[in-house]
Write a structure and sequence with these properties.
It comes from Dreissena polymorpha (Zebra mussel). The structure is a single chain. The protein has 160 residues and is of the alpha+beta class. The chain is built from three helices and eight strands, in the order αββαβββαβββ. Helices cover 20% and strands 30% of the residues. It has one domain: Ferric Hydroxamate Uptake Protein, Chain A, domain 1 (Beta Complex). It is globular and about 60 Å long. The termini are far apart. The N terminus is likely disordered.
Length: 160
């Protein structure tokens, strides 16, 4: 899965620059920019959107998400976030596609092509020049470790 993520992100960056969609100018790579991409290959409508973003100081990634919605609203229509005082903002949905971890274990994975999944969220991650940042709509395939119970009892042992 991780190999697919890195390869797809590399392709996204190359396609954006090759098609002349480089919003930073005519240079092959902008010296003070990074690439922001969103990818949904799980549920219709499928989409893969990507855009170079100019760095504007040491701002958290959430700032650039808002800039993408304001400037490039045909590719980046909206996002939905929930604020948690301890952790910051958690991205629930992008372009109208909501994660639903409880029912189908889907979520938006926040990652960098160089490092893989990030250990920081959009409130604290500060992109650097050349970064390739990706939100990938993902299904968590890890087995559940919590056993469901009925009123605190093992359902196999419950007798009505």
């Amino acid at each position: 899965m991780r190999i697919y993520l890195v390869l797809s992100l590399a392709v996204i960056g190359r396609v954006a620059y090759a098609n002349g969609d480089d919003k930073c100018g005519s240079d092959l790579l902008c010296r003070s920019s990074f690439t922001y991409s969103v990818l949904n290959h799980l549920f219709p409508p499928y989409f893969m959107k990507s855009t170079p973003m100019k760095l504007q100081g040491k701002r958290p990634f959430l700032y650039y998400m808002q800039q993408a919605v304001e400037k490039y609203n045909t590719e980046f229509k909206n996002f939905t976030a929930t604020y948690y005082p301890t952790y910051g903002y958690f991205i629930e949905g992008i372009n109208g596609l909501m994660g639903n971890f409880k029912d189908n274990r889907t979520y938006w994975e926040f990652s960098n092509a160089t490092f893989g999944p990030l250990d920081k969220g959009v409130s604290s991650y500060i992109p650097s020049s050349g970064d390739k940042v990706l939100f990938n709509f993902t299904i968590d395939s890890r087995p559940r470790t919590v056993q469901r119970t009925f009123n605190g009892l093992d359902p196999k042992k419950f007798k009505p």
